[in-house]
Every structure is written in C-alpha cells, then in structure tokens.
Amino acid sequence: MVAATHQREAQSSRQIKPYMLVAGRYLCVNPNLSATHQVLGRCRVKVRSSSRIEMEISGLDSNGRQFKNADEMWREEVGDSQKKFDWYRNGVGYWQGVEASVDGVLGGYGHVNEPDIKSSEAFLNTLLTDLFPNSGRNQHLVALDCGSGIGRVTKNLLIRYFNEVDLLEPVSHFLEAARENVAPENLLVSEDHKAVNFYCTPLQEFTPDSGRYDVIWIQWCIGHLADDDFVSFFNRAKAGLKPGGFFVLKENLARSGFVLDNEDKSLTRSHTYFKELFNRCGLSVYRMKDQKGFPDELFPVRMYALTTETPKRVGPSRPKRQLNRPALIK
Ligand SMILES: C[S@@+](CC[C@H](N)C(=O)[O-])C[C@H]1O[C@@H](n2cnc3c(N)ncnc32)[C@H](O)[C@@H]1O
Q1: Do 116 and 303 meet the contact criterion of CB atoms below 8 Å apart?
Q2: Rounded to whole angstroms, how far apart are CA atoms 17 and 222?
Q3: Ligand 1 centroid to 171 CA: how many Å?
Q4: Terminal-to-terminal C-alpha distance of the chain
Q5: Which of 108, 208, 278, 329 is the most exposed place for a label (fewest CB within 10 A)?
Q6: What gap in Å lies between CA 99 and CA 105, rounded to an integer?
C-alpha cells in the first residue's frame, strides 16, 4: 500500500522527487521492480597518485539499472553530439508538457512552496548580512533566477530583496506565465523592484552580461545539465557576478552516487558529487543549509552558497590553541 503510494508519486512528480528509505539509505522507486530488486546508489572517492581526486561514483536510473560510474552513464546519455542534443531536447520537452502552475513546476507538490520560500528567505538573509554587511540594504541589488519556471522564486522571494531580477527559462509557456506573474500590477513591492529581462534560453547556452549580478539563484534545474555543461556554465556565470557576488544553488540530493531520471532527463547528484563539480568550477562552499519541513518521501534538499573566493572566516579568528607542553619545575 505504502509502496503503491510511492510508485504513483514517482510517476507523477519530477525534480521534486520521491525516494524510498530502506535501512537508512535510499532506493530509487521503480514501479517495474519489486522491492527486492531495487538497487542502491553508492559513492567512493579515490585518490590517484597525481593527488587529483577522482570520483568513482556508482549510481542508478529510474528503471533500477545500475551504472558503475558516472562516466559510463554520461557516455551513454550524451556521448556524441546527437545524444547530447536528444538529452536536452527531451529535458525541455518534458517540461513543455507540464501545466504552467505552482503545482506543475513542483511536480504535484504545490504545498511545499511555502516551506521552500521560508527556508530560502532565511538562508538569503543570513548571506546578505554576512556578505554585504555595511551598505547591503542600500545597494542597488540585481539577481538572476535560473530555470525560473513560472517565476515562483522571483515573485515570492527575489523581487522583495533585489531591485532588478532577470529570469532565464527555456520553456516558453513557463516564461510567458512568469512575465504575467511578476508584472508590476501583480506584485506587492515598490516601483524600484522589478523584473527586467526574460531570457528564453537554456543554461548550457547562456552567458550573462559581465559583472551584472549580486546573486545568481539556481533552483531545481541544474540536474538537467551534463557535468561538462555544469562546469562551463558556472565558469561563464562567474564573470556575470559583481565583485563579492555569489551563487545560491538549491537542489535535491542523492544520499550517495547519483540517480538518473530517464523521463525528464535529469540527474540527482550526491553531496560528494556536487563538491567534486564545485572544485572543477573553482567555487567554494561559503555556507550550506538543509531544507526542513518537506514530506518524508521526497529527496532531501540542500541550499549551497557558492563564492569564487576561498571564504574568509567571519567573526573573530580562533584563538591559538594552548599547547599542553611540560614545563620545567624549578
Ligand atoms: C522543477 S522546475 C523548477 C522551476 C523553478 N526553479 C522553481 O523552483 O519554481 C525545473 C525548471 O527547469 C527548467 N529547465 C529544464 N531544462 C533546463 C535547462 N537546460 N536550462 C535551464 N532550465 C531548465 C524547466 O523548464 C523548469 O522550469
């Protein structure tokens, strides 16, 4: 009965994705496999003699197929230009068939909108206080909402903190809904807060204007990017940040390894997987926080604040450790 509920959800929700907990680890919920045939994702970090850390991450797909590492999976999915073209066409194609509503972009879990925005706002407030301590609130702040869908995050959060918000979304009927949702007459903010540019393009093809943004917000869409496009997107986007600007990445987390969704062509990555990609992008995790208050059957969700510089310690530096050396007794 419980399994059946999970199975229905697995078929109906994307990005906001259910998983099944067994003995503290996740199982990909696959309606075609019995529980005994479900397989676990695993992850291992291997140190090569060159001292470069290489990930040996095994994972699985939504049909329960296991991959021995991410390379094997990516070779199959995006290994030549036709496959890569199909990967992105199918990803966007999935969302083209989804209703332009909060429930639609949240995979049938419209009720998580409120706890999602609440946690994001607390996280953003902490970051703004930390990173723009002096003039932050009087500065003219600009944000980019990536994979914005219908403008849910912009409307409920970003537009209240940023004077200008640009939205990027490859699915045109979502972007049209976003235009409507964040039109000045539908917002409760002053005139100096507005949505400015609406880019109908995917992340892998986007290069932001140099030095335009204080914050680039990327929520529930980076899973659509293959690893190489993930790295090149962040490398281009770094140039789009103002000095001191930062990224917020909010994503589902696989407990280990990765889970490929065959239907919407997206990858749920583990924390270790993300960390390896952040390293490749030259990004540091300044702060991270786990989302609370979501239904148990969903993947855990984490917020990362990423900076291009190694974070400086905030607050007083740690006092030198008192060494417990033996002293001479005179
Ligand atoms: C789960 S929805 C999240 C929408 C929005 N970020 C939110 O939290 O309400 C995933 C979004 O990613 C978008 N998307 C799919 N492929 C993408 C790509 N290659 N680049 C940017 N966005 C993409 C979809 O069109 C969809 O709007």
Answers
A1: no
A2: 14
A3: 8
A4: 78
A5: 329
A6: 8
Q: What is each CA distance from 193 to 140, 209, 305, in whole angstroms? A: 10, 20, 23
> How do residues 188-224 score in pLDDT, each as one tens digit?
888 899 999 999 999 999 999 999 999 999 999 999 9
Q: What is the pLDDT of residue 15?
A: 61
Ligand 1 pocket, residue 178 CB under 6 Å: no
Strands (E) located in the chain:
20-22, 25-27, 43-47, 53-57, 59-61, 66-67, 142-146, 164-168, 194-199, 213-219, 241-252, 258-261, 266-269, 284-290, 301-307
Return d(Cα 198, Cα 175) in angstroms, integer. Answer: 7
Local structure of 214: helix, strand or coil? strand
For residue 224, the 8-state DSSP code is G
Using only C-alpha atoms, what is the Rg of the chain? 21
What is residue 44's three-state secondary structure? strand
Contacts of 18 (CB under 8 A, 6+ apart): 6, 9, 10, 29, 297, 298, 299
Could you please state the CATH topology (level 3) that the domain comprising 1-311 is classified under.
Rossmann fold (3.40.50)
CA of 247 to the centre of ligand 1 (A): 16
Residue 122 has a pLDDT of 98
What single letter denotes the amino acid at residue 84? K
28 C-alpha to center of ligand 1: Å? Answer: 22
Can you list the residues of the chain whose pLDDT is less than 50? 1-13, 19-54, 313-330
Rounded distance from Cα 105 to ligand 1 centre (Å): 8
Residue 265 CB less than 6 A away from ligand 1:
no
Element (H, E) at 122: helix 113-131
pLDDT in tens, 253-285: 999 999 999 999 999 999 999 999 999 999 999
The reported pTM is: 0.84
> Which atom of ligand 1 is nearest the CA belonging to 91?
16
Structure tokens at 144: 């980019």
